[in-house]
Amino acid sequence: MRRLLPILILLMAAAPAWGHPMPNSAIVLRLHRTGMDADLTLPIGELGVGWEKPLPPDAVEMVRQYGAALEDYVLAHVRPYAPDGRPWTVTVRKVTPVAEQNPDVRVLLSMTPPPGAPVDRLTFRYDVIFHHLITHTAVVSVASDWRNGVTGEAPVLLGSMRDTSTELVIDRSGGSWFRGFAAMFCLGARHIAEGTDHLLFLLALILPAPLVASGGRWGGYAGWRPAFRRIVKVVTAFTLGHSITLLLGVLGWVNLPGNLVESAIALSILISAVHASLPVFRGHEVFIAGGFGLVHGLAFASTLTGFGFDPWTMVSSVLGFNLGIEAVQLLVILAAMPWLVLLARSRVYGPFRIAGATLTGIAATAWLAERAFGWDNRLAPIVEGVASHVLWLLATLVALAVTATFTENTMSPGRRNHQIRRIGEAELDRADCVKA
Amino acid sequence: MNRPAFLTLTAVGIALSLGLIAVNFSSVAPQAAAQAPAPAPDLLASPKVADVVEAADAFLATLSDEQRATAEIVLKSSLAVRWTNFPGGSNVRNGVFYRDLKPEQVEAALKVARVALGDEGFSRYQEVRAADDVFAKGGGGRGPGGPGGPAQKKGGDPAKKKGGGPGGGGAMFGSANYMIAFLGKPSKTKPWILQLGGHHLAINIYYKGTTGAATPYHVAAQPTVWKDDQGKTHDPLAPMRDSLHGLLISLTPEQSKRAKLDARFNDVYVGPGKDGKFPAKSEGVPVSELSETSKDFVRKAIAAWTGDSPQGVEYQKLYEAELDKVNLAYSGTTDVGERGDYVRLDGPRVWIEFATQGSDHYHTIWRDRLTDYGAEFSF
H or E element: which one contains A301? Predict the structure, then answer.
């Protein structure tokens, strides 16, 4: 049913231009902790017939002339009731003209249950327009219901109302803080899992982690422990960075244009890809990762804004969303890291790293060109296509790591790896000033 | 990091990645359950089924595998109700569109329509498509904003809307944006539905062996009247409009008052998506109380819609038998041409609606309460 809503909205938006009347009104509900908002979009042509008033077709003019009277008309035809029969309080917060191709008027209502009545269960009685114009319908949906995990990103269609069904029993009970939290967690997890750019960034960042830098180039294998230690530091810095800007963005304190943020993310991936092939900021990874985190957090924030949550719910959302992001990041690193480290012990790792860095760099450049300059990105579908088979990629990595290890161990057992590892470890510990 | 913790972490990572890979390789798509068809009572004789199946098979043979998969789909309720009286393409309708077919394929499709609809029905079918061509060229389309409502600000040249509509498939209007679909395989024994549709047409013909049904039958027009290049006047829904107009002005003032509804309409009431949603109470004035002149107009109106089906004579007989139980209701003016004018004939079986969305824009529907979609589905 969720798929239906965009189609309905499309039809609503497009139909009048073709000489057909707009098919329906839209009622969008937003649940709060103390009540509910109802956002009505009423097509003026149909409203004029239902209300029996010769309304001017110009939305702005209509609101100027009839706005005040419209409040009374709407209030007389919207009657929510508590399960015990007591009426809810309804007030008009705003009447705004929508002067698009088809003139609409939007009426924003605040609805509050009587004392002691539940906020998530009611009988919604409504017959605006179709009490008289009986071929009219209103489509009702919920765009914000935290306790049931409903957000503006995936509104839920509740049903349609018409002359023969002027009552809609709305029961949003059974939800819980945890369900809202879980939904946000999933949203955060999905955001990373489906965000190819964030995934690539992460992988580019950990690609050189098992290696030592020497003389402006990536040298040999640094050892298990430094590799993991480095990963933990980089990921923690990234997390701290994006948590800060996510919160600032959601609170509305920082608001940068989406294009700028997306371009900066593409740039951060490009820089990480370069760093994976040549150590450009060896030793400063923590600060770089933290800085990139700040940028990525702004992109995360844009996903969370516009849900219409109250402050407490918003804070919960940020927490759930952030933990979802962390969970997937951790999953990716835990799944990929052992094999990368294993592979780093072999001679295959050099070409593998360069190939990975080059491909990531190309993808990042394409994104950058697309986001910053609006150039056509022909690579995007290919990158997305490859990324959608991420488990196959992982399988390939596993196979490669196992094969390489097995082959090289039989060819030159023991000494070489051992030596490189010891040198690497000492060097790395000096560079990072880390003492256990 | 100490050694045991580090080894555990590595083990978890390895187990995790192998587990994920295993899940990826073992995922299986779920199978859809089959649906048993319901019994279909009260069907009418459908003597032409063999000819229609022959024409349908001939048409389907001209299609590529991909086109055929689009044209021939499963007979089920959720697909059968996918039609509309609005413009739009495959996002709201089933089947292949003529715009996607070669001329000889369209020819074969039109042959199916001709055999299935009979001469009168096919002529209406072609006239409605022609009206859409005129509309697409900007010859019609004084767009109404609703009955009695304000005239639309923009006169609207719909031809300029190419490519912008829902579904995104090219122009929304014109005879090429009409489609043909088969729900179930065309058969002389098993049930199937032929859907012929497009903006302003939704023809659902049900076949089951030598029986069948002709509704829901939605026919509309915009513009309603136009002159072609040869100077010939076209008025495809004239029999519908004129019989109902004659009927309304034949009423006595008292009958007219009783027939008039307070409710307003800007479209048919039991339209697409409203299958089975007939009003609980039959409203208006009973035809039994009307004069013979009025009753004749009722018969003419019924003949206007049912005549578009090869089973029309049989439907007329059935509706004639229930004529005294039919109610007449209207809304708006008795002109049957003003924006918001609406007329309804409502009997135990017959349901006919005529709604004007402007003097040059009619929407109508004929339903048989007992055999919509051959009573294959319950609503």
Answer: helix A285-304
Place of tokens 């008795």: B334
pLDDT < 50 positions in chain A: 1-18, 413-416, 418-436
CA distance B203 to chain A (A): 20
Greatest CA separation for chain B: 103
Rounded-to-integer distance, Cα A105 and Cα A131, Å:
18
Q: What would you report as the CA-atom Rg of chain B, rounded to the nearest whole angstrom? A: 25
Q: How many angstroms from the chain centroid is the CA of residue A173?
A: 26
Listed by number, the residues of chain A in 208-237 with a beta carbon closer than 8 Å to a beta carbon of chain B are: 224-225, 228-229
Q: CA A414, CA A122: separation in Å to the nearest integer?
A: 74
Closest-CA distance, A45 to chain B, in angstroms, reads 5
**Residue among A56, A164, A398 whose CB faces B17 most closely:** A398
Closest CA to A204 of A347, A405, A365: A365
B35: number of Cβ within 10 Å: 12
Contact in structure between B330 and B353 (CB atoms under 8 Å): no
Instruction: Please check the confidence at residue B252 and state whether its pLDDT lies above 70.
Output: yes
Of residues B285 and A266, more confidently modeled? B285
pLDDT tens, position by position, B203-225: 999 999 999 999 999 999 988 99
Strands B217-221 and A78-81: unpaired
Integer-rounded Cα Rg, in Å, for chain A is 28
Q: Which among A350, A336, A392, A383 has a CA at the least distance from the CA of A364? A: A383
User: Which of residues 23 through 82 in chain A touch B, CB cutoff 8 A?
Assistant: 23, 43-46, 48-50, 54-58
- Dig out the tokens for A104 from the structure: 């609409």
CB contact under 8 A, B263 and A54: no
Give B91→chain A minimum CA distance, Å.
Answer: 8
Residues 6+ apart with CB under 8 A from A382: none
Phi/psi at B32 (nearest 5 deg)? -80, 145
Instruction: Please state whether the predicted TM-score (pTM) of the whole model is above 0.80.
Output: no
Cβ neighbours, 10 Å, residue A218 = 24
User: Which one, of B245, B83, B232, B225, lies nearest residue B142 by Cα?
Assistant: B225
Which chain B residue has its CA at the smallest distance from A58's CA? B153
> In A, which residues are within 8 Å of B263 by CB distance?
132-134, 163
